[in-house]
Amino acid sequence: MRKNSKRAPRRLPEVLSPEEQTRLLAEVEGNDLASTRGRAIVRVLLNTGLRASELIGLQVRDINWTNGDFLVHGKGGKDRVLALNDDDLALLKSYLGPSGILSGNRPVFTSLDGQRPLNGRVLRRWIKRLGEKAGITHRVYCHGFRHTLAVDLLRATNSLKTVQDCLGHENISTTTIYARLVNGEVKTALKNLRNGV
Length: 197
Prior knowledge:
The chain is mainly alpha-helical and about 200 residues long. It has helices spanning about 20-25, 35-50, 50-55, 85-95, 120-135, 140-155, 160-165, 170-175, 175-180, 185-190; strands at about 70-75, 80-85.
C-alpha cells in the first residue's frame, strides 16, 4: 500500500529588494582586487541567477569575451547558454585583467592569490557576512540571489518560460512559485477595495 506522499506547500522564497541590492553592491565598492572580485560575484549572481556551484564551476573558456554569451554547466548535466550584460562583461574583464588571460581551462573566480578555485563554503560565508554588513535584516544567502533574479526577470518580461529557461528548471511548475511573488492583482484589488469609504 502506497503512503500518501502529498508534498507540503512551498514557502515563498525571500528576495532582495532593489534597495537591498544597492546596499550590497555599495559594500563591495573599491578598486582593489578583493572589491572588484566581490562586486563581480554579486553582480553575476544578481544578473544571471547562477547557482553557487555554477558560479564556482564557471571557466574562462566558457565565456565569449566579445559578446558576453556564456555556457553554464547546470545541475544534472543540463547545460544552458546565458548572457552577461555589457557592464558585467567589462567588470569581469577588469577583475581578470591583471592576469591578462581570457582563455583557457581555469575558473573565473578563484582565491585572491589566484591559486585555488573559489571554495563553496567560503563563498556562502562571505555572502552571509556581506548581508550583515549591508544591514539587511533577513538572511542573505547565495540561492536568494537566484530567487531575486527570477522575480526581477519575471517582472521585466512577464514570461515564466523565459525565467524557466534562464534558471534551467526542467519543469515549469518549479518556476511558477515566482508568479506568486510578482502577481500584483490581488494586492491592487485589496488596496482599492472600499478605498475612501
